[in-house]
Specification:
The protein is an alpha+beta fold. It has 2 domains: 72 residues, Immunoglobulin-like (Sandwich), CATH 2.60.40; 107 residues, no CATH class. The chain has 10 helices and 7 strands. It has a 4-stranded antiparallel sheet, with no helix packed on it.
């Protein structure tokens, strides 16, 4: 019985000791500016290199390890036993984006804008004349999310290194700020201070408090001023209570 107890204590230590890593040095330009993402695709774990280019990630024989960054060509190795026993050096090439050949001079232009513009045929259709709305311009953080989601590799990398979570948090904060500003444009500040008894110095904070509540935002989306005012009266009671508790 005592031997069995000792085995229970020793086995986890043996397993931990058998855990292996692939490590070494990455050689590439601009390492001090761009970190390299190191992804164990097989085990779905990830790390980033140090500013000096050193890396260290858990691996076993047969795993596929991917090295990638925005500025370098992607490099992949299949882990062999020798990679786990000695340091493995990785050499990355810079990513060079070449433009496709394009025709610059399509017309016989003189260089005089007033003359040349008459030669250029243009067809412009304003989609609003057909009843279509102008597409909403995506915010920078939303474009980053779309770009990441369009690439399964980028999505995996950003999910593992935590960037995807940060982008979603930034989008959520941006949406709350947008709803806050929309509320302040819909409801006059005088109504908030006079009818809802919110001190003027807290008007913007109160609007932010309301914008964080999805139920309040959904009422604002219905564009029913009376229903929104009724909702804000309830929010004002709760807000004043919270501020009194804090103060």
């Amino acid at each position: 019985m005592r031997i069995y107890f000792y085995l229970l204590l020793i086995l986890p230590l043996i397993s931990f000791g058998q855990e292996k890593f692939i490590k070494g040095q990455i050689y590439a330009d601009s390492l001090d500016t761009y970190q390299i993402n190191i992804i164990n695709i097989t085990q779905e774990i990830g790390q980033v290199s140090t500013p000096e280019g050193k890396y260290n990630i858990r691996a076993k024989v047969g795993d596929s390890i991917l090295f990638t960054s925005l500025q370098h060509k992607t490099y992949t190795i299949n882990v062999e036993d020798s990679n786990l026993r000695t340091n493995t050096s990785i050499f990355l090439e810079m990513q060079i984006n070449e433009l496709e050949e394009v025709t610059i001079l399509q017309y016989d232009l003189t260089g005089n804008l007033s003359k040349d513009i008459k030669q250029v045929e243009t067809d412009f259709i304003d989609q609003r004349q057909f009843g279509f709305r102008v597409p909403r311009k995506l915010a920078k953080v939303e474009r980053e999310l779309r770009a990441a989601q369009s690439s399964s590799l980028d999505f995996l990398i950003m999910s593992l290194n935590g960037e995807m979570k940060k982008i979603k948090q930034r989008i959520e904060i941006a949406n709350i700020k947008t709803d806050k500003n929309r509320l302040l444009r819909t409801i006059p500040s005088s109504l908030i201070t006079t009818d809802l008894n919110i001190p003027e110095i807290y008007v913007e904070d109160f609007a932010y408090y309301c914008a964080e509540d999805k139920h309040t935002v959904s009422i604002m989306d219905k564009e029913d001023p009376l229903a929104l005012i009724d909702e804000l009266k309830l929010k004002a009671i709760a807000y004043i209570s919270i501020k009194n508790l804090k103060e």
